[in-house]
Design goal:
Blueprint: H1 9-21, H2 25-29, E1 32-34, H3 38-52, E2 68-70, H4 72-77
Helix pairs in contact: 1-3
Length: 78
């Protein structure tokens, strides 16, 4: 597990977009981005889709045992 921090929300989102852009399918399947709420997961998924096209990272409550984006509860459910 790696913890990343950013000075502001825009910087955080941009870092995550760059991270997602560099992930290949095997890496994306093993990546989980922890956000505060499911709503934040949905928003980040929309941001990635807007900036990158179809994203390999989906909200965890919609992915089937793969990596994704989600809250702490989603992570424990994985």
């Amino acid at each position: 597990m790696i913890l990343f921090r950013a000075a502001d929300l825009a910087g955080y989102r941009q870092f995550l977009v760059e991270l997602a852009r560099d992930l290949g399918p095997p890496q994306a399947a093993d990546t989980f981005i922890l956000v505060p709420t499911r709503a934040a997961a949905e928003q980040l998924a929309r941001t990635l889709e807007e900036r990158l096209g179809r994203s390999a990272l989906a909200p965890a409550h919609r992915s089937l045992g793969q990596g994704g984006i989600g809250s702490r509860a989603d992570l424990y459910d994985e």
